[in-house]
Design a protein that fits this description.
The chain has 256 residues and is α+β, with helices and mostly antiparallel strands. 59% of the residues lie in helices and 11% in strands. It has two domains: 154 residues, no CATH class; 93 residues. It contains six helices and four strands, in the order ααααααββββ.
Length: 256
């Protein structure tokens, strides 16, 4: 077998040179991302026919503005043809043209290098431009995706805690009604005869799917301690006044 051909076959497509190019482009892209807005906002045309490596943000902004207009009862603004074309052009450049330029530029540089030709300036330029445009969207997308996942998880947890809290408040309203009924019933019928003394929640009132409830009763006031079953450190403390109203709410743990 021809030694040169065998050597070419074994040569890795992504050589150390490729890694060096990636590192250089990453640094250049980070610089581009940080200064991009300041550079392009100097142009008056940027306000209407702008270019950005984050076209989805522009599209999301237009959608949110339309939704807010409808919510407030106003007539949504008509998105101009120029704005729609600008968003479409951004998507095409970032996700179609730029990656194509990057990989074609790299491939042609390797072919010229293997053939022993030294003129690779044009393809190097195409490689650099395509790489910077591609990385300007890819690099910020990584931390953005991580942050979005963290925010989504935090939001779901917060919603779950709030749901448990709301259901426990409903349970406490039932408990207050039960305590009020006990107070107004005569002692001959098993009530308190005008006092909370002796009242203690039982059965489904003392323990529900959401939490457990205990009461310290005096003549005119019930002190209630509630603890969540789903979040053991989440607590609610309050009093039931002589009219059966819930007063002096105090939230602990995740309910704060």
């Amino acid at each position: 077998m021809n030694p040169k051909i065998e050597s070419d076959v074994k040569r890795a497509e992504f050589s150390p040179e490729f890694i060096q190019v990636l590192i250089a482009l990453t640094g250049a892209t980070l610089l581009l991302v940080f200064v991009f807005e300041h550079v392009f906002k100097l142009h008056t045309l940027y306000e209407r026919y702008f270019f950005t490596p984050f076209p989805w943000i522009i599209a999301a902004g237009l959608t949110i503005a339309d939704g807010l207009s409808k919510f407030s009862g106003e007539q949504p603004a008509v998105v101009s043809q120029g704005e729609r074309l600008a968003v479409l052009a951004n998507f095409l450049i970032i996700y179609v043209v730029a990656p194509t330029m990057f990989f074609f530029g790299w491939r042609h540089r390797r072919l010229l290098q293997d053939q022993g030709e030294g003129r690779r300036t044009l393809w190097t330029f195409i490689l650099i431009v395509g790489g910077m445009l591609t990385f300007s969207a890819v690099i910020p997308a990584i931390p953005a995706a991580i942050a979005q996942r963290a925010v989504s998880t935090s939001l779901r947890d917060a919603q779950a805690v709030q749901g448990n809290k709301d259901l426990m408040i409903n349970d406490l309203n039932v408990l207050a009604w039960s305590a009020r009924q006990y107070k107004i019933l005569p002692k001959s019928l098993g009530g308190g005869g005008g006092s909370f003394v002796g009242y203690s929640p039982t059965g489904e009132i003392a323990s529900t799917e959401e939490g457990t409830y205990s009461v310290e009763a005096s003549a005119n006031v019930c002190s209630v301690n509630a603890r969540s079953k789903k979040y053991p450190y989440a607590t609610i403390r309050l009093i039931i006044d002589e009219r059966g109203k819930l007063q002096k709410w105090n939230y602990g743990g995740p309910f704060e």
